[in-house]
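<context>
A single protein, sequence plus fold
<sample>
Here is the protein in question:
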Amino acid sequence: MTLQEHGGFVVVAQAGTADEAVAAVEAHMPEVILLDISMPGSGLAAASEIARRFPAVAIVMLTASEADEDLLTALKAGARGYALKGVSEDELTGILQSVAGGASYVPPALAGRVLAALQDRRSATLPEVEDLTDREAEILRHVAHGQSNKEIARALDLQEKTIKHYMTNILQKLQVRNRVEAAMKARDLGLS
């Protein structure tokens, strides 16, 4: 049984290399293309070129790789689907139909792992207390307790404009937009 027989797809071309795949897309403008990530000339290179030149064509990568980096690279290259070799014909048909219809597909186990890794990276890049000077940490503690710049200036025997300057630095270091977000971050960092 072929995809054509099973899924209602019309196979308009087959390509053995990345260059042939790009040429086939240019010649036939299919709704969806299935690329082997490890095809000669690089399926990722073909995906990137096809996504750049023919953005309406939905790309599904077929691969044996369950590596997070390969998945991320494929998605960055423009793939909207990532199917593992060994997937059943029914599943592959469903993936192709979904992606051709505008959806995206990543195997659930891989999606969960990649999302967890991205969240870990995000957590690892969150600024730590050590990024703040002692004075900035002290001011941030006051902010976390709801004090205004004027109140903080009085408490620390500083000018209000000095507190404003410190607050600008604190907001930048914490990568937040305002003092409310800074106060929330202070609580997250254990400064309140």
Notes: The mean pLDDT is 83.
